[in-house]
Amino acid sequence: MKTKLLSLAILTALSAPAFSHEAGDFIVRVGAATVAPNESSGQVATFGEFAVDDNTQLGLNFTYMVTNNFGVELLAATPFSHEVTLPEAGVNDLAKLKHLPPTLMAQYYFGSGNLRPYIGAGVNMTVFFDEKFTNDLDGALSDLDVDTSFGLAGQVGIDYKFNDNWLVNASVWYIDIGTDVNFNLGEDRVSIKTDIDPWVYMLSVGYTF
Q1: By C-alpha distance, which of 79, 81, 103, 84 is closest to 41?
Q2: What does UniProt give as the signal peptide span (predicted)?
Q3: What pTM, to 2 d.p., does this model score?
């Protein structure tokens, strides 16, 4: 009797439906996305280098499965907001800025079935706005402007589908963001090359159409 029950359990597990991405599927994922900058910059006069803090926002991505294994994804989010500091000078509230980093990825999904790890590579455009100094260092700094960035991006992730439509996802991006930070230092206009190069971490739920 025990042998029959064990055999029945194995057959039931083997016959359980496998929910997999297929060509023509459109996937929407929504979750928390954290941008964690890995920044470096030129020297800001005698004040040292810029530092940029982490920020978490609502992340969105949209994937179209071209084949069962190849997909195209667009990453979007609500605007990320960062504080800029000068740690070497002890300035913890130098500036604030916002940005949007739309990223277009080509993806390859491994295997088949419910669990689908994937990798991706693509291009990023990061648009900065609402830049402002919150500490002008006694009038030394003014007129902050940060240029739009264009760069490459890489990605790893994994989907787990628990029925035909719904899934959970975890993914990580590395994005090449390099920009010029422009401002007035006294009477001089200066431009500081700055690499932000963040890791982006996202946990999300998704729906397949």
Answers
A1: 84
A2: 1-20
A3: 0.87
